Amino acid sequence: MKNLGFGLGLRPDHYDAILSERPSIGFFEALTENYLGAGGKPLHYLDQVRAEYPLVLHGVSLSIGSTQPLNRDYLKAVKALKQRVQPNWISDHLCWTGTDGVNLHDLMPLPYTEESLNHLVPRIQEIQEFLGERILLENVSSYVSYRHSHMTEWHFLTELCARADCLLLLDINNVYVNSVNHHFDPIDFLRAIPRQRVAQIHLAGHERQESFIIDTHDAPVADPVWELYGSACERFGAVSTMIERDANILPLEALLVELDIARRMMEMQPVA
Ligand SMILES: [Fe+2]
Hints:
By secondary structure, this protein is an alpha/beta fold. The protein is about 40% helix and about 20% strand.
C-alpha cells in the first residue's frame, strides 16, 4: 500500500480549521459510519476534505468476528461511500461487536483459535470480493482473554493475513495496552508480524491504572508507546501513520505538533 505519510483522524471539531487553513498533512482517516447515507452536512464536509487530501475510511461496524451473517446493507453503504470518495483504503477492527441481535457497542476480542480463523477467513474474502479490494483489519485492545485461545495474538494475526490475504492496521497503542494487560513482551509481537502486511499504523493515548491500562484515546501518546513506535519504524519502515484522538479533542495545531514527533521518529530511521 502507498505510504501516505502522517495523518490525523478527521473530526467534526476540525472541519473548519482544515478547510480554511489547509494544514500540511499526509492524509485524513474518516470514521466510515459518520458518512453513510445519501447526503447531509458530514458528507458535504467530507467531499471538500477529500478534494484536498488523501483519505482512508475506518469503520467500527463490520463485526467480522460475529457469528451473525455479514450485514449486507452496511456493506452496500460502505461500497457506495467508497465509490463517492475513492479512499486509498478501507479498514475496520478484528473483533465482534454483538450477536443474536444485541449490539454491545464495544470492540470485543476473539479467541485465538483455529476455529476463529476458519470462521473469519471466508467472511473477509467475501467482503474483499464485494468491495473489490483488500481490507485492513486493526488489532484491538482487550481486557479479557479466552481459555480457548491456543495461539498468541501475533500468531493469530499473521495466520489470518496469510489465509485471507488481507492487510493489517497495526495499532501500536493497542499492542502496548495488551502487552501490559496480558503480560507479554510487545517486541515479540512486532517481530512476528510480517512487514508486507502492515499498511497503516495507529498511535493513541491511554489511561494507566495500577495493574492494567484502559485504551481511552483522550490523551497524548504515552512514552512507552512512542518507544514501541520507534521499534515499529525500525521493523516496518515508512508506513502511513496517524494519531487517533476521540475525546478531549485538542485544536488542530496541537495535534499537528504531536504528529511531528512521529514524523521525526520515522525520519531517524536509516534509509533501507
Ligand atoms: Fe486504533
